[in-house]
């Protein structure tokens, strides 16, 4: 295990910094799963990928409901011999609007939200927030909305209690002091002339109608999320780190996508899978538990004219997969939760996580000695700097990934991704050196024989 910065050439150092610039652009643009799907689709189309449900080509893209995508690149071998699969998730913790979000209190208009995924609620107070989403109106027309990302646009925020009046709040447990029901976003404050009741709400509804053609009932049929309003930034006087929202798991999304676009010849067919709903347990029709992967593989076998009674299961069983998800990096402020010998560290390269889960390895998928050996030797052969990672001390908690759902097909699968500090916060931190090694790791895996 080594610090990447101490092991690389000056040429690689340049590559690290230029890769980080590309990544930051993506991260700043894509703050919802739909925006990620849009980005992936456009990039794939620019690179000659065609709609897999309608074309029989060597490079195909499959997507469903703007929330799940697969990209396929034919290899020298047939699909029945198994794919090289990398699966990552495109959703991140955030606040969603409730179906009836608008309410007025104390002559201020607020948006009622429900959080999505594992957040520490206090981190969402007192920061600038943006609104991203899609609304379906009464004519069944879709309308995309992003407010708060441009310099001249307003932002939104959740007001906390001032310390002077926070005496009782201070003595409560952190989750009781800031319950989910208090995560309501400040949305406006000017009343409509001549109104007596709900006058601010009436004025805001007027603005929504005039400026965005949105009526109150339209918000029932909407996927609107509240996310941090700021762009990714370099962190550190040496600019070695990146701070930004949604790096879990978009750092793995982007590096795997970039790796695929940079590959010319691959022995095995490649399948990248980008799934939604991971942060809430992978439930739903666009999650890793959905039948999407099965359907895509079936379609590829049909194109290759090798579809039979047994071939989808065989192709999946013969596949080798990386569950590309981030792992937690050792935090010098909270070292007590980590096992210093086994936890991942920033700048030590891509993390190989043999198993996830918590306590007695409950609810985890574990890669075998053989498959972990295959990965380790592959990375060593191609100068990928890697480290091991596990989630904290044995009884300190833990986490899971989508690896368990693909493992059900019998394929070999292992968790590999970048270490992240401040994970699941509105400002997650990654290392540019680890970003580069993660990209390199995915590329050698996809290219390998
Ligand atoms: Zn994740």
Descriptive tags:
449 residues; alpha/beta; Aminopeptidase; Aminopeptidase i, Domain 2; 2 domains; 9-stranded mixed beta sheet; 6-stranded antiparallel beta sheet; 11 helices; 24% strand; binds zinc ion
SSE map:
Blueprint: H1 10-29, H2 33-46, E1 50-51, E2 59-64, E3 68-73, E4 84-89, E5 94-105, E6 108-116, E7 129-136, E8 142-147, H3 167-171, H4 174-177, E9 185-188, H5 199-212, E10 222-228, E11 233-235, E12 241-244, H6 247-261, E13 270-275, H7 292-303, H8 311-317, E14 320-323, E15 327-328, E16 350-353, E17 357-358, H9 369-381, E18 386-388, E19 398-399, H10 403-407, E20 412-417, E21 419-420, E22 428-431, H11 432-447
Parallel strand pairs: 1-2, 4-13, 4-14, 14-20, 15-21, 16-18
Antiparallel strand pairs: 2-3, 3-13, 5-6, 5-10, 6-9, 7-8, 7-10, 11-12, 12-22, 16-20, 17-19
The structure holds zinc ion.
Residues 89, 248-249, 278, 325-326 line the site of zinc ion.
Walk me through the structure.
With 449 residues, the chain is an alpha/beta fold. The chain folds into two domains: 4-92 and 245-447, Aminopeptidase (3-Layer(aba) Sandwich), CATH 3.40.630; 94-228, Aminopeptidase i, Domain 2, CATH 2.30.250.10. It is 28% helix and 24% strand. It is built from eleven helices and 22 strands. The mean pLDDT is 94.
Number of domains: 2
Cα distance spanning the termini: 25 Å
Number of helices: 11
β-strand percent reads: 15-25%
| Portion of residues within helices | 25-40%
CATH superfamily of the largest domain: Zn peptidases
The CATH topology assignment of the largest domain is Aminopeptidase
The CATH architecture designation of the largest domain is: 3-Layer(aba) Sandwich
User: Which shape, going by the Cα principal axes?
Assistant: globular
Low-pLDDT ranges: none
The number of distinct β-strands equals: 22
Q: What do the pLDDT scores average to?
A: 94
């Amino acid at each position: 295990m080594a610090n990447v910065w101490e092991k690389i050439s000056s040429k690689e150092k340049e590559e690290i910094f230029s890769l980080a610039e590309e990544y930051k652009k993506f991260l700043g643009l894509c703050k919802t799963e739909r925006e990620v799907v849009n980005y992936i689709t456009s990039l794939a189309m620019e690179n000659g990928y065609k709609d897999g449900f309608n074309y029989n080509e060597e490079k195909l893209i499959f997507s469903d409901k703007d929330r799940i995508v697969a990209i396929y690149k034919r290899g020298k071998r047939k699909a029945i011999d198994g794919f090289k699969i990398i699966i990552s998730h495109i959703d991140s913790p955030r606040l969603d609007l409730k179906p009836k979000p608008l309410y007025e209190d104390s002559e201020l208009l607020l948006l009622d939200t429900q959080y999505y995924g594992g957040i520490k609620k206090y981190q969402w107070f007192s920061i600038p927030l943006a609104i991203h989403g899609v609304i379906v109106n009464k004519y069944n027309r879709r309308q995309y909305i992003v407010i708060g990302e441009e310099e001249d646009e307003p932002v939104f925020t959740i007001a906390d209690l001032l310390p002077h009046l926070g005496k009782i709040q201070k003595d409560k447990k952190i989750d009781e002091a800031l319950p989910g029901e208090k995560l309501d976003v400040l949305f406006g404050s000017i009343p409509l002339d001549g109104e007596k009741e709900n006058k601010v709400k009436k004025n805001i509804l007027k603005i929504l109608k005039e400026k965005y053609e949105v009526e109150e009932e339209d918000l029932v049929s909407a996927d609107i999320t509240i996310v941090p309003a700021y762009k990714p930034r370099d962190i550190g006087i040496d600019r070695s780190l990146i701070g930004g929202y949604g790096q879990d798991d978009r750092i793995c999304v982007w590096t795997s996508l970039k790796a695929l676009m940079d590959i010319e010849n691959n022995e095995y067919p490649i399948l990248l899978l980008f799934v939604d709903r991971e942060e809430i347990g992978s439930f739903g029709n666009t999650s890793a538990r959905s039948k999407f992967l099965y359907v895509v593989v079936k379609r590829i076998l049909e194109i290759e004219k090798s579809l039979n009674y047994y071939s989808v299961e065989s192709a999946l069983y013969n596949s080798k997969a990386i569950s590309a998800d981030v792992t937690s990096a050792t935090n010098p402020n909270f070292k007590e939760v980590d096992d210093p010998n086994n936890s991942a560290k920033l700048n030590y390269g891509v993390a190989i996580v043999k198993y996830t889960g918590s306590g007695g390895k409950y609810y985890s998928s574990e890669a075998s000695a053989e498959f972990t050996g295959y990965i380790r030797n592959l990375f060593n052969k191609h100068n990928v700097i890697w480290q091991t990672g596990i989630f904290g001390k044995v009884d300190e908690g833990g986490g899971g990934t989508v690896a368990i759902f693909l493992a059900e097909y019998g394929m070999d699968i292992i968790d590999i991704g970048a270490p992240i500090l401040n994970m699941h916060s509105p400002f997650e931190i990654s290392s540019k050196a680890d970003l580069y090694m993660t990209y390199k790791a995915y590329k050698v895996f996809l290219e390998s024989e």
